[in-house]
Amino acid sequence: xxxxxxxxxxxxxxxxxxxxxxxxxxxxxxxxxxxxxxxxxxxxxxxxxxxxxxxxxxxxxxxxxxxxxxxxxxxxxxxxxxxxxxxxxxxxxxxxxxxxxxxxxxxxxxxxxxxxxxxxxxxxxxxxxxxxxxxxxxxxxxxxxxxxxxxxxxxxxxxxxxxxxxxxxxxxxxxxxxxxxxxxxxxxxxxxxxxxxxxxxxxxxx
Length: 206
Description:
Blueprint: H1 2-5, E1 14-18, E2 28-32, H2 39-48, E3 52-56, H3 62-75, E4 79-81, H4 86-95, E5 99-103, E6 112-116, E7 119-123, H5 126-134, E8 137-146, E9 150-155, H6 171-188, H7 202-205
Parallel strand pairs: 1-9, 2-5, 2-8, 3-4, 3-5
Antiparallel strand pairs: 6-7, 8-9
């Protein structure tokens, strides 16, 4: 199991706090944000299992994007760039019984209207749509930077997905639920949230 192996050798700089085994038997999605060294979540999953395909946003610079992509693939494994067709790639992964990792604090112009820290934003409905299609479990996870070059990975209990009166996944409420979870994390460690893009479209509004 991961907790015992993380205490050995090169993994001594990591702690794992989890109420849920990574060896999950149902289809699952793990969501996180750009907090701490967030890519360590994917590195640990690629090293110890289970099989997780991660959605990521390539840098705008094509030369830097290619170098970073090679570096990531050697350590993280399955990666899907967030562009047209990425939803189908993640769906194929779930259809084959694999897990999916998604960063949910990214800007998405065509997303659902939601609130984030009290201001209007657009939130990607991809996670909610995947749950509707595959009835998968959803787990929040984050990386926290600790003193003395250490990190703690936290895998939280699965969240209850909001549903409407007919029992279908409520896309709007699910998107808002993700933002509320992000707000909780960021308020706890505001200095560890790294996201340079204008999530609130302040430039456009001004």
